[in-house]
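>> received
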Amino acid sequence: MDDLVDKEADLAALGDPPAQPVAPHILFEDLTAEGMVSHFEHGQPSIGIISDEGGIFFGGHAMRPETRLMTATFLSKLWEGAPLTRSRAKVETITFLHRRATMHLMIQPIVAEDVLADQVLVGQGWLGRTLIVWPESRIGTRIRNEDPSQVSQPRRDAATALGDFHGRIQALLERGPWDVRESSPRVLALSMEAKARLLRFHNDVEEGQLPGGPFEAITTVASKASQQAARLAGIMTLFEDTEADEITPGVMADAIALIEWYLAEAKRLLATGPISDKIRDAEILRTWLVDRRREPVISLRDIARFGPNQLRETARIRLLMTVLEAHNWVIPAPGTVIAGRAVKEAWRVVRP
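>> returned
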């Protein structure tokens, strides 16, 4: 007993325990709302959920059916810059201020289709707070050339611009140390003309959300467009000059142009709704019929033998051909003579 008293006295003589060191990590591929709160309590004030395999996040615990709404709501609060409060039984209530987050996820088309069609992510508003892009596939065009003289000028220009970008990012990272755990963010003002441009853009997009307007089907995205433009303008300004205190009209115009492009992309991806497997397969078959085959009439047997590998079941082909018939891409042609014999099931292909 005396030994225990002596040890407690020795510990008391040492004074208060040292503060827990700040966790150094800021980049994650998968993190739940609870994990983000824990990070903000013990780690850096900023966080990045960044991955070139975004399926890790969308297939992880954060996006399970029972946690998806909480995750989306938490991320939306971070986007708004709202204070975050952690309150649990037997634990001190803590409010976190000035916490920042960024998210950049690259996902495969099959994952993207589910995400874009998710009514929770759309209806809650989180998807409208993201900038979405679905570029065309470059498969088949990614030709490498060891001879620098054979590289096209646009590709050389792109490589130079990317090198400049990386250099600037490196210079910004080397400016540290960064210690902003509880500091108030510096205000970056809008010049009068920049503010006027942003206001005109806001009003144009707002009117475009009326029934019959160009943004009627993507109000969840369009409603945030002016805020997105202001945020991009701020980032672009500080990227060029970390000591800047005002956003210029030119930078605002560039930011608005970018957001207009993202609005067009959102309209293309979100306004059409989810695509069924039947429609998707019908488009694969249509492309094969129109672009890969030159015969004016083709039989069911030839489609099953030579068609797209994933679409060689006769029952499936019949179903897809009825879809193409309904959209006037093929016309039934039973009894057509092909290779000297009459064919019961055949279609005439309509080419544009």
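>> The first strand starts at residue 27 and ends at 28.
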